[in-house]
Specification:
By secondary structure, the protein is of the alpha+beta class. The protein has 13 helices and 20 strands. 31% of the residues lie in helices and 19% in strands.
């Protein structure tokens, strides 16, 4: 069997059954991954070439991460011979594949020892932000907010500060002059007459489409025309102290927010007040690990989606270690990640986190 496809199925949830099937029923001979290289000039396709044989004895899979389209490309066999590496015997383990060399695989095993996955550490509390379905109506500027509150002071109850992925920086959120009308499911909109009148300007666009009908409106759903599209039942999480992070970034951009602000669907929220955890997530050790866990997209960006982030191992630590790292993180937060000493504080907590993972000597 030989096929060319996008490489996304290596890590994405939708590829789990295919990975498990291949690991069980085939000897995978080679995987050649071109990442975001422009193999196809008209599109970024993230192509890979997969070669396997049904049944037979298991073999050492040859994995090649192609770095350049210079020679010997397009001779794929020569690329594999030049740059391919044998994967560890347990690299293709059911639906969990680790496409890394032996050294990196050993590092991952070391980090996982005495650690628990982030998803377990936070009891599954990793939420995505608000999807309104029509931002033109629900997302407003400060001037519009002032006008709505002037018309009806009660409007202030459901108008929240609002941030997008580009507003989340390392350690902090730079909230712009942007607000969201958070008309959640079940809201009594008649209690907010100024908000209702504002939204009514776009009633046709806000009304859910009927299934299968090509008509103006948001996607079909059980929400009312004046409600946000998604049923954000976990909305109280936005108003708690929380760790937030964008879904696409080149480096860790985990921030802490205690303002009660709301975020859009390009941002994930972990509603915990845990500066030790924030330090671990922003550490160099986690970045080096995450490069191997996340799909790569054009420009060297990583996908910080829940299905990958929840697998990050969080090291168990003594109260003293947790406090020491949290104190360093607090100093980074107090300076908003800016200033001459931030690099010094980050270097110290990076070293502490590395020791907790067993990657550095005590």
């Amino acid at each position: 069997l030989v096929f060319i496809s996008s490489n996304k199925w290596f890590r994405a949830a939708y590829g789990a059954k295919l990975r498990a099937h291949m690991a069980k029923g085939a000897a995978v001979l080679s995987i050649t991954d071109f990442g975001d290289l422009p193999v196809f000039e008209a599109a970024t396709a993230y192509p890979m070439i997969f070669v396997a044989q049904k049944g037979g004895d298991k073999v050492a899979t040859r994995f090649t991460q192609v770095k350049s389209l210079a020679e010997p490309y397009p001779d794929v066999r020569a690329l594999i011979e030049q740059s391919g590496q044998a994967l560890p015997p347990d690299a293709l383990n059911g639906e969990n594949w680790s496409l890394t060399d032996n050294t990196t695989a050993a590092r991952l095993r070391t980090m996982a020892t005495a650690s628990i996955p982030l998803g377990d550490y936070v009891n599954g509390q990793i939420y995505y932000g608000i999807k309104t379905g029509f931002n033109a109506a629900f997302v407003i500027k400060g001037r519009q907010r002032d006008e709505l509150i002037a018309d009806d002071p009660k409007s202030a109850e459901i108008i929240k500060p609002f941030a997008g992925g580009r507003d989340v920086r390392r350690w902090r959120i730079d909230y712009p002059d942007k607000w969201v009308i958070f008309a959640r499911r079940g809201i009594q909109i008649d209690d907010y007459p100024a908000i209702r009148a504002h939204l009514a300007q776009w009633k046709a666009e806000l009304t859910p489409k009927r299934t299968g009908k090509e008509e103006k409106g948001r996607k079909p759903g059980r929400y009312k025309w004046y409600e946000v599209q998604d049923d954000v039942a976990y909305y109280p999480a936005f108003e708690k102290p929380k760790i937030v992070f964008p879904d696409i970034t080149k480096e860790p951009r985990f921030a802490f927010d205690s303002t009660g602000g709301y975020v859009d669907t390009t941002i994930f929220v972990i509603p915990v007040d845990d500066l030790y955890l924030l330090g671990v997530l922003n550490s160099e050790a986690v970045l080096e690990l995450y490069v191997d866990m996340s799909p790569k997209i054009r420009g060297g960006y990583l996908r910080y989606k829940r299905q990958y982030v929840e697998r990050i191992p969080i090291p168990q630590a003594s109260a003293a270690d947790r406090t020491a790292i949290a104190d360093l993180v607090r100093q980074c937060l107090d300076t908003k990640g800016q200033g001459p000493r931030v690099a010094e504080w980050e270097a110290e907590f990076n070293a502490r986190v590395a020791r907790l993972y067993g990657l550095a000597a005590d």
